[in-house]
Amino acid sequence: MADADDVRRLALALPHVVEIDSAGFDFRVADKGFVWSYPERQPGKPRTIRTDIAVLYVGDEAEKQALLLGEPELFFTVPGYDGLPLVMLRLARVDVGRLTELVTDAWRMRAPEPVAAEFDEEAG
Fold first, then answer.
1. Calpha distance 53→21 (Å, rounded)
2. Confidence at 120, pLDDT banded by 50, 70, 90
3. Which residue in 41, 106, 115, 116 is a FRET match for 47, CA 20 to 30 A apart?
4. pTM (predicted TM-score)
């Protein structure tokens, strides 16, 4: 199963990725976030940074719904993310191979087109 160290290793292996200083993890490409720690908010309590849950950029509402409905054991959302192309991923329930795919896809959707194209060319 995966953890925050796996997220960090995978994200930093991608081109032009910057890690933002945070209490958990927060990765960006071209100043656009693609994966970060879940900032859990509960009424009447301070925000808690959850490094066991990753927030992933997924591109659009259709993909978000497909993940939520197709794999509810892995993915969830909260009302604060309604209408946003983001899902939360339970890291302890995903294997590193699938995490690699998810982080890379999130990066690809946020990276500038030439950077993503060059990455895809090099990957074959």
1. 17
2. confident
3. 106
4. 0.95
Element counts in the chain: helices (H) and strands (E): 4, 6
CATH number at residue 98: 3.90.1150.30
Residue at 122 is within a domain: no
Note whether 70 and 46 are within 8 A (CB). Answer: no
Q: Which domain holds residue 101?
A: 4-115
Q: What is the pLDDT of residues 104-116, one digit of tens each?
A: 999 999 999 999 9
**Rounded CA gap, 91 and 23, in Å?**
17
Does residue 124 sit within a domain? no
Distances (CA, A) of 91 to 57, 83, 106, 108, 117: 15, 23, 15, 20, 28
Contact 36, 26 (CB under 8 A): yes
- Number of domains observed in the structure of the chain: 1
